[in-house]
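Table S2 (continued). Query chain:
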Amino acid sequence: MTYLLALGDRAYSSWSLRGWLLFEKFNIPVQTRFARLYSDAFPKMLKEFAPARLVPTVKTPDGVVISESLTIAEELASRHPEAKIWPSNPTHRAIARSLAAEMHAGFGALRDACPMNMRVSYSDFVPSEAVEKDLRRLEVIWDRAREETLSETPWLCGEYSAADVFYAPIAARIVGYGLKVSPYAQAYVDAHLSDPAFRRWRAMGMVDGPDQPFYKRDFALQDWPHASSQAAETIEHGPSENAMCPYSGKPVTHFAKIEGRIFGFCNAFCRGKTVIDPAAWPAFMALLAD
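Corresponding output:
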């Protein structure tokens, strides 16, 4: 038996992104359950994870139900020390834990005014004084963490850690609402936008059901930075170069033209996530390289 992870909409659920990254970035095997927020399917899904009420929630291989992202991070770190979810250096680990805890409990103005929506990027959102204050605080703690840990990577405390997991949705909010931050903070945001796991999550979120009306805002739209530059589009018919889906190994039924070549997939979701960002998917890129 492996871990079982309950998640909500990929495009909108910031806490689900954190929960998923804790497994994806640290190579911990997991099976996922998804249900759309504000749907009857959501409480139905959580019955399997009782007494949990929110996502992410994990059921461990021994049947223990764990809710709250910070608790999940700590429990996974205890059970999988080889994964290095937190920095091994005690000082760096303390800084990373402090960063994650502040994110878990703080930045209420930013989170309330800018709910995560990875399907759009707005160009004319005007942040309030309270949101600006949260942004300045992010600049301070991000810069301080890199200085204190002497980080030589794009990440806060050296190698990618749970601290970076917790700030991934903040990066999505900053780009999604066109928020202005210092050059050093923007470089950190860009590191998330370029990260393959982050890109895979967003690509899935773009085709993960219809838009959620709750998250719609009447601001002008702009292109999502770091969007794929590869030519890709869905098409109705094959034949495709491949007979089996690069992800499931099942026979192809849906088709896409990518870089002028036709490829097949086992369903609309596999095709859609690939068309959004082909280079984010190693299995597909191996097929493209053949």
